[in-house]
Specification:
The protein has 40 helices and 18 strands. It has 904 residues and is an alpha+beta fold.
């Protein structure tokens, strides 16, 4: 990380690239400097971009940009400061001081002033800075005396960090030397204080990014494992050893040559990506957003393969690189800690067993041959970390030894009873499993012991639904499961905390979590492939037939509960009985429920809603009751309807409802209404209708927050065309998400619409004002005399355009309920449901029920429909009409078309 001042060859090369002769000739001829500087800067930036596109690497180009900016600043300083040029000093600081200037980076400058004569210099400095801005240079500057530098450095470690990287551009060398000496570790911020403060700063920064480098839109500079972590190493080395050269760490024994090569190679890749981001966006953009990932992947030569997109291959290299850099950062900071903090006095050494000891609170090998003599110790160390929570981490030399001995984890190692027993004991420990698995992943041990896990390390899924790489998602899932066991978090998911406390073998749940997505990225059904992987694991680890069967089933069916809750009518006893038969017993239900909750939350925490929470709890309780009742004696629909009506009558009796009018109303509703609604809903709806004025055009009532974690909107109105279209358009325009819809047509010409809504935040409606806004908007539009075509003006999120989704329409008969089930998969966008409603109206289709699910940019909706005569769709013309109409109304947003199909 040196500048070009001491590298004449680099300076000559840059001079040949950019050429300052024309600039100097124009200045000597008396031409106006501003156009000359602008022209030189624009031409130079164009040359930089061209050289990058022709394969010149970013490590050289960031030095080149630093050099060309040097040339402009030095000439501008001389011109504006004239005879006062040696009175003050112009100093490059920060990344510019390191000569690592990216295309969109700010140019950080320090103008160093003498202790006196400020007033005389100020007009010249102001003119200089205005000129620099006018040329197009993004200058960030501070003006200080040496005393100011000391004062502000003492108050803020970031100031002294910038000054450590200072580089004199022009002006007084004496003044610069005074400043440099005044902020040295002998005067302020000794290496111990500096190290502890910077380490705390890094922890806080990592926490801001949720302590993971594996989000799908990472910040290449600030995220864990990013460029800032490498700079952290250089800063500490600079403060303690007086050098910012990473190569010097090899000479001092802190890095091996191989580790240095990995560090430099990783840093260079991040530089390449950051340089490309700045060129592509035209600004200092350090976030590798979906908007840019495909373009940069193509620019770097990544192409789609049979089973993987080019962008996914590119991002996998990125994630594996930052994993290596995170490990090296941890190892070097641990070495620095021992060098800087523990040099005073003897080390505190506590033997743990004959293979390991704790040294100053960090676990390490007792001698250099431990892993050679006892390969199983590569797993034992993680068990000891769990069993000794007072340990703060792993010693750097031991991390290095683990990495160097990973080759010992082969089939013989995996078949060793000691290794198998250790791995299972790691999973059985009551504390430290999450941290242990994360360390095993970063050190490469988990991938070595479970080769199938190694294939998904750094694997991304290019969509808006999964926000982590597959390996990080799996580890987050296990963390979520462990969190259910911690009393401190019991209030977050009380049912989960209760259920997990009753499990006979929690380690089986953690294994299901480890294996549920382990086959992602392969051809075929990842659930079935993962089930085969976990079966092999169970056989190798001598698990019982029962435990093996449970794990196989959990991995194969890990999506079942989520799909049932979100895509089927779980108030229907037939659905519950079918699900209960698949589950089979309460133990499987307990394991599956916990795995499902943890899985959804680990996929994307923002997608977890109170609605999904309530759906899963309802499915869990209903299924448990069905299993307790006995699969041989399932609850029949008629019995369920009788129960609902009986409970509703009791509720209505306390409301002094008119029994005669109630019975008359209920006769018009039909059995389907009572299957879909709870007794509380039936009583509420009945009371609203009874209390309404005779002939009232419509009733709109809202429960802001229900037991199902949603806002429920009830609408009772006379039958009218496009009522569903109108309602959904109004709700969409109000920024509300429909998650469930039920439509009942009565025998006396009315419709009962029940909508469950969430705000865009995923929460129910909270304020009375918002509730009234929704009610008023619906009443106003439903009661309008004229029928107008509603258009939703909200825009589709910009990032959705990067995820083309083919529209898929499929139909299947629902013979039990004499209706047709339509599945629609299409890009999510505002107005989607109202567009579907228009298609239904055009083709004479009645909507009975809808289950709405949005997975990132992908809508996966289920509609239960009939024709106008309440019969299932029967002939090909009805299917063809509906498909054509849907594609017409969905329009360009629907993506490439896939033909409609029948699904099972």
């Amino acid at each position: 990380m040196t500048d070009t001042a001491g590298d004449p060859a680099a300076a000559d090369q840059f001079e040949s690239w950019f050429g300052t002769s024309a600039l100097d000739a124009g200045l000597a001829a008396g031409e106006s400097p501003l156009p000359l500087f602008r022209q030189f800067l624009n031409q130079s930036h164009a040359a930089l971009k061209q050289k990058f596109e022709h394969g010149i690497g970013a490590p050289l180009l960031i030095k080149a940009r630093s050099w060309l900016v040097d040339q402009l600043l030095i000439r501008a300083w001389r011109r504006f400061m004239a005879e006062d040029g040696q009175t003050a000093a112009l100093v490059a600081v920060g990344g510019y001081g390191r000569s690592e200037l990216m295309p969109g980076s700010d140019i950080d400058l320090l103008v160093l002033l003498p202790d006196t004569a400020h007033e005389r210099l100020n007009p010249k400095l102001e003119s200089l800075l205005v000129f620099l801005w006018d040329t197009g240079l993004e200058v960030g500057h501070s003006v200080r005396t040496v005393g100011d530098c000391i004062e502000q450095s003492l108050a803020d470690v970031t100031v002294v960090t910038n000054l450590m990287e200072a580089r004199l551009l022009a002006g007084s060398e004496v003044l610069y030397a005074r400043m440099h000496a005044s902020v040295s570790p002998e005067r302020i911020w000794n290496s111990r204080d500096f190290f502890e403060t910077k380490r705390r700063e890094q922890r806080n920064r990592h926490r801001k990014y949720h302590d993971t480098a594996y989000k799908l839109e990472p910040n290449v500079k600030e995220s864990p494992g990013g460029l800032r972590d490498i700079q952290m190493i250089a800063w500490v080395a600079n403060r303690h050893f007086g050098t910012a050269s990473l190569e010097d760490l090899v000479k001092r024994g802190f890095l091996t040559q191989a580790e240095y090569d990995v560090l430099v190679e990783g840093r260079n890749l991040l530089w390449e990506i950051r340089f490309a981001l700045h060129i592509l966006t035209g600004r200092g953009e350090d976030r590798l957003l979906f908007d840019y990932q495909r373009t940069i992947a193509e620019q770097f030569g990544y192409r789609d393969e049979d089973d993987q997109l080019g962008v996914e291959i590119f991002m996998k290299q990125y994630y594996r690189t930052v994993m290596d850099l995170s490990r090296l950062n941890e190892m070097l900071l641990q070495l620095f800690q021992e060098e800087i903090l523990f040099t005073d006095g003897p080390a505190e050494i506590i033997p743990l067993n004959k293979r390991f000891q704790a040294r100053n609170g960090f676990i390490g090998i007792a001698h250099s041959r431990v892993f050679d003599n006892y390969p199983f110790a590569l797993l034992e160390i993680f068990l000891l970390l769990e069993q000794n929570p007072q340990l703060k981490g792993v010693r750097a030399d031991t991390i290095r030894a683990i990495r160097a001995h990973r080759h010992l984890i082969d089939d013989n190692f995996r078949n060793d009873i000691r290794s198998r027993s250790l791995f299972m004991e790691i999973l059985r420990q009551p504390h430290g499993l999450t941290h242990g698995l994360r360390r095993m992943n970063v050190y490469g041990v988990l991938a070595a012991y479970l080769p199938a896990f190694g294939r998904i390390v750094g694997l991304m899924q290019y969509d808006l639904f999964h926000i982590y790489t597959v390996d990080e998602h799996i580890l987050f899932l296990v963390r979520n499961l462990r969190r259910f066991t911690v009393p401190h978090y019991a209030k977050e998911f009380p049912l989960c905390s209760h259920v997990i406390a009753t499990l006979p073998k929690p380690e089986l749940l953690y294994l299901a979590g480890l294996f549920h997505d382990i086959a992602k990225g392969r051809k075929g059904d990842h659930s079935e492939l993962g089930s085969a992987e976990v079966r092999d694991f169970c056989v190798r680890h001598h698990l019982s037939d029962y435990d093996t069967g449970l794990l196989e089933w959990l991995v194969a069916k890990h999506l079942l509960m989520s799909a049932t809750a979100q895509r089927e009518d779980i108030s229907d006893p037939a659905v519950i009985n079918r699900f209960a038969r698949t589950v089979g017993d309460p133990v499987r239900l307990d394991y599956l429920y916990l795995l499902t909750v943890a899985d959804i939350r680990a996929t994307n925490p923002e997608l977890w809603t109170t609605w999904k929470d309530a759906l899963l709890r309802q499915l869990y309780y209903n299924t448990r009751r069905a299993l307790q009742r006995g699969l041989q004696d399932p609850l029949e629909r008629s019995e369920h309807i009788q129960q609902i009506q009986s409970e509703a009558r009791k509720l209505l009796a306390s409301m002094t409802a008119d029994a005669g009018r109630r019975d008359t109303l209920w006769e018009t509703l039909g059995e389907e209404y009572f299957l879909r609604h709870t007794s509380d809903q039936v009583a509420w709806h009945t009371q609203l209708i009874e209390e309404s004025a005779v002939g009232e055009h419509c009733i709109v009532a809202i429960h802001p927050s229900t037991e199902r974690g949603s806002t429920e909107v009830f609408i009772y109105a006379k039958i009218m065309d496009e009522l569903f279209t109108l309602i959904t358009a109004v709700l969409d325009q109000l920024g509300l998400n429909v998650v469930d819809a039920g439509i009942i047509t009565t025998r006396d010409g009315h419709v009962l619409n029940t909508f469950h809504l969430l705000e865009t935040s995923g929460q129910p409606v909270e304020s009375d004002r918002r509730t009234e806004e929704i009610r008023a908007a619906l009443v106003n539009e439903i009661t309008r005399g004229d029928r107008r075509v509603w258009h939703v003006s909200r825009r589709t999120p910009h990032r959705y355009k990067h995820f083309p989704i083919k529209t898929h329409i499929a139909f299947k008969p629902d013979e039990l309920d004499h209706r047709t089930v339509m599945e629609l998969i299409t890009p999510d966008h505002p107005g989607l449901l109202s567009q579907v409603g228009r298609a239904f109206t055009e083709c004479g289709v009645r909507l009975l029920n809808a289950k709405i699910a949005t997975l990132g940019s992908r809508a996966e909706d289920i509609f239960y429909i009939t024709d106008r005569n309440n019969q299932p769709l029967g002939d090909s013309q009805q299917y063809e009409c509906l498909e054509k109409s849907l594609r017409k109304h969905l329009g360009a947003d629907a993506g490439a078309e896939a033909p409609a199909t029948l699904f099972n």
